[in-house]
């Protein structure tokens, strides 16, 4: 897949407790907080705290007096009240060009190696050169056919500022397939998945479980920040969709893991949702952290 930026969250690490890493670092150096999309409400009106279920392992970093509204304030309720809609939804793809994103033929592309990818594509390839954007780290994602999900992913990537181009590209597989396929060219992000880090491989089962929980919380915070800034809610908090970078070098001791994380960024927007209404960070965070309960 892709890789990473530096908008990550740390929990329980000195002065950075409960804050975005980049925000904490910039604050320590006297700069300002992260920008926030002006059309999204940052805090919903105070409501009574629910006692119907315990808070998740990591309390919401976005509390006003409210931590969680209720046990039903989850992803399902966000869908039912129209706050979120999948990008593949016909009402989202109603623009004149939303279904024409693969009409263009893309040429002048030199491919690098094929890389590990997910199950919802027909191949991911590094691009060593693209005539329309030379000297950039790019990635091409292929699909078997066009349709609502690829159309929606193009729109989500465009809103996130990650889309370079979309169109028909000749299949680069060396096994004789040469027909043009719908494809997306996007910025390639650098980073490593948690399961591929040395520290995770050397950790005990309990330590691995703790690391997974911390990364899950980081992913949810990043999803919330992106939803506020870009109106794109990732939601697919599979660990394969998170790439980590480190402040210096990759740690080998569990005790050094969290404080060594420089950034986390989410990848793969094939199942993303558009934010349609004002929504609090608390509510989005609650939906993300409780996704496995749905």
Describe this structure in words.
With 294 residues, the chain is α+β, with helices and mostly antiparallel strands. The protein contains 7 helices and 12 strands. The strands form 4 sheets. A 5-stranded antiparallel sheet has the order 4-5-6-8-7, covered by helices on one side. A 3-stranded antiparallel sheet has the order 3-12-9. Strands 1-2 form a two-stranded antiparallel ribbon. Helix content is 24%, strand content 20%. The protein has 2 domains: 9-88 and 191-293, no CATH class; 109-187, Phosphorylase Kinase, domain 1. A hairpin with a 7-residue loop joins β4 and β5 (123-130). It has helices spanning 21-28, 75-80, 148-160, 198-202, 205-230, 257-260, 281-289, and strands at 9-10, 19-20, 84-86, 109-115, 123-130, 138-142, 163-170, 180-187, 232-233, 242-246, 261-266, 273-275.
